Amino acid sequence: MKRILLLICLNFIMLTCCFGQTDIYDSINVGNVWRKYNIHLPLGYSSNTNYPLILGFHGGQQAATSLQGWTVFAYQSKLSEKADSSGFIVVYPEGRVFNQNRSWNAGNCCPPAMNQNVDDVGFIDNLLDTLFSNYPIDTTRVYATGSSNGGMLCNRLACELSHRFAAIAPNACSQMYFPCNPTNKIPIINFHSKVDPIVFYNGGMGGAPPLTAIFFPSQDSTMNLWSQKNNCQSRDTIINGNGTNYDFIKIHNCSCNVEIHHYATTDGSHSWPGGNPNNNPVSSQISATDLLWSFFQNYTLGCVTTGINDLNETKDAIKAFPNPFSDKINLTNTTGKEFFTLINYFGQVMWTGKYIEQRDFSELTRGLYFLKIDDRTIKLIKE
Predict the structure, then answer these.
(1) Which of 48, 57, 150, 265 could share a disulfide with 283, CB 3.0–4.6 Å?
(2) CATH classification of 2-296 is 3.40.50.1820, yes or no?
(3) Over the stretch 64-77, which tens digit does the pLDDT of each residue have?
């Protein structure tokens, strides 16, 4: 009992000393299961500022009897430090724990979450709604990153929740969710060590238990899939570019001006490039955290994959009022499960999310808008 109390005290001291009072450990109920997450608010946080949001996903198989998985990933990636210096909110969701191990259901990986068919996509979808309701977040600037099994979940979220994320940055992982049918084009920056001993760069069975029974596609295969999904036409490869020891691949000329950037280091291991060490060697050739934030700043959730002329108003039982509107948009005959996207006349996404009746749109400029409700569209006039 004394040992348990000591561990709890040590964990509390580490959270307080290392992460400060700007970290909030919370949970939500999803499908009668309490799912945990940690919120890091940047230094100088103000409720009057709309912040970009990054979700950071820990890797799998991190012992649940030690610190929470988010503390390990926060330490490895230095994302909280970057949030303080650059002014964004970072949230670290927690994978569910089975048999003293936590993981994410990213499709074909990883146990035990994969074997239990855990609804991690539903968790993240509900988590975003909760965060949007309680914190000043720019809903068009939501991003995801993660390492290993956490990076695989980023890829799955890009397949199933592409309408919620402006870009993703997976590390040390492969595409493990099929079939992948994103509704939006999505920019991607990813990182992988050529000497990764767990998820091999050129593909193959996993390099350590319990992953030895799982096949991981190669990095080239993963890039080709996303190149196809984003309708990309050009690919440039720079070997040891600018005197560096890493390779850089840029896939571009894609729909919606998205790009795919890939960094292949020749050092490191199954770890976070440029981060703090955690059992495995860390690449000194790049800083994944610096690179992903620089990449993310180029993108908002503003790409409409159909032309603005294709957004014809549909005749539907759902009606919007008042129309014209000044600040609030009210709807009839909704179920509360719909997902809304408000687009201006130029095709820019101005807001996306659920529970539109709770939003205040008084700051929008006057003019014509299109409200997409799943696969339906309503024309609105802002007065």
Answers:
(1) 265
(2) yes
(3) 334 566 678 999 99
